[in-house]
Design a protein that fits this description.
Elements: E1 2-3, E2 12-13, E3 22-24, E4 29-30, H1 31-49, E5 54-58, E6 68-70, E7 82-87, E8 93-98, H2 102-110, E9 113-119, E10 131-137, H3 143-159, E11 165-168, E12 174-179, H4 186-203, E13 208-209, E14 221-225, E15 232-234, E16 250-251, H5 271-278, H6 292-299
Parallel strand pairs: 13-14
Antiparallel strand pairs: 1-2, 3-4, 5-6, 5-9, 7-8, 9-15, 10-12, 10-14, 11-12, 11-16
Helix pairs in contact: 1-2
Length: 303
């Protein structure tokens, strides 16, 4: 497979191995089909991955057998796979892959990487997040609470001058994201995200919680704040290692009004046609970054 793109992967030839291996038995989706999917969406997906340390969710024997998460890039990865070293909590540096070109994305998919998880930071500013990320994690099957929580978070973020975006998680929930200027460290960003989440919990304590212990949540939606430098969230357009090959799919706020929406609404078989029809709902995300300092000042004036 030749991978030609405008991002440094031009002319690279990839030898796909075991293309007929079935990764998703229920949907009869092979490894070759997964790689074809990533090839088709690469031009849209890559801007969301660019310069972000990647955690890979790999399934060498398909989703019906245990997989594993991989942070450190293999030492024998080709030289055209860009890398970044990021400090761990213990102080040592860990070297991650960066998917800055289509060849890298397909190389990693050929390694049975079904899902790609990214950090909220980019190379060059590894201690200053450029995204606010809220993961709405359900405790039951009532997706209406998830939709309601996303709408409330979107409204609050807009009220303080940020530009909120939403996507399905590809699993059970939704993610609400707002691009920010990378001018504050982890503590500042986490503190702001928590202030927003606490506000929602105060408004509707019967539906939303910041309780980290699952058994104490009851049937409330957990607001998981994924805003530290090394914390990850599944990337836009990443497949998930779940039956049917669902995708973490950016959606419009209008689509959030659909009562039939759920976290696995879109699969790898649907996303390419969707992109051809409507484009990427997140295509303006990076350009909409706002100052968190200004947003914090506005938050203090709200009821």
């Amino acid at each position: 497979m030749d991978e030609d793109d405008e991002d440094g992967g031009a002319g690279i030839t990839l030898n796909v191995s075991s293309a007929e291996k079935v990764l998703f038995p229920d949907a009869k989706i092979t490894k070759g089909a997964l790689i074809d999917y990533y090839a088709e969406v690469a031009s849209v997906m890559l801007p969301h991955l660019r310069d972000r340390p990647l955690t890979l969710h790999r399934f060498p024997a398909g989703i019906e057998r245990p997989g594993f998460f991989q942070k450190r890039i293999d030492e024998d990865a080709p030289p055209w796979v860009e890398r970044v070293a990021m400090p761990t909590r213990g102080g040592e540096a860990m070297t991650y892959a960066l998917a800055n070109n289509g060849a890298t994305l397909l190389y990693l998919a050929n390694k049975n990487s079904i899902a790609f998880h990214t950090c909220a930071v980019r190379r060059g500013a590894l201690e200053r997040p450029d995204l606010l990320v809220f993961d709405l994690d359900p405790s039951d099957d009532d997706f209406e609470k998830i939709r309601l929580g996303a709408k409330h978070l979107g409204a609050m973020l807009a009220a303080v001058g940020l530009a909120p975006y939403v996507k399905t998680s590809g699993s059970r929930g939704l993610h609400v994201v707002a691009p920010i200027v990378p001018e504050e460290d982890d503590d500042g960003v986490r503190g702001f995200a928590r202030a927003i989440a606490e506000r929602l919990c105060r408004r509707d304590p019967s539906r939303f919680t910041l309780e980290t212990v699952k058994k104490r949540r009851g049937d409330r939606v957990f607001l998981d704040l994924r805003n530290a430098s090394a914390q990850t969230v599944v990337a836009p357009y990443s497949a998930r290692a779940l039956p049917g090959a669902p995708v973490a799919a950016p959606i419009t706020w209008k689509e959030l009004e659909d009562p039939g929406l759920h976290g696995r609404r879109f699969s790898i078989r649907e996303i390419p046609a969707r992109l051809r029809a409507i484009g990427d709902p997140w295509r303006e995300l990076a350009a909409g970054a706002k100052s968190l300092r200004a947003a914090r000042a506005r938050l203090a004036t709200l009821d």
